[in-house]
Amino acid sequence: MFRIILFIHILVGVICLVTGFAAMIAPKKKGFHTNLGEIYHFSFIIVFLTTIVMAVMHWSSSSYLLYIGIFSYSLALLGYLAGKFKWKNWVAIHIGSILGSYIAILTAVLVVNVNRIPILNNYNPLIFWLLPTVIGSPIIYLIRKKYEIDLNQEKSV
User: Which pTM was predicted?
Assistant: First the structure.
């Protein structure tokens, strides 16, 4: 049973990575970007649910995954809802939360698999816990700034 859940988790995790990246590079308008976002969010739900099941099944060695899953999906959900309901300051919330959830899922993939990757397995695993955030956080900041500038220019027209 665990292997089936793990297979689903990995498969849907790959879908998250692919659709998340595609949504990042897609034009930001209704259609392709929003469809990718729906797939990303739905896939993240399944990743989250399978994380819960696997953490419970192997609690003594994997309980920490539950907390990482809660944090990661919370970011994905917050970003999704901000985009759906267009709250005040929704663009900044959407960008920060969705990209934060992407960093979290990318971190999980790296941390779980780095010991299987030649050359990378020679480095301290802590690097791979931190590297996506160290690289991703400034990118989030720059993208949020870009969209704040774009939105301010639209308001002044």
Answer: 0.88
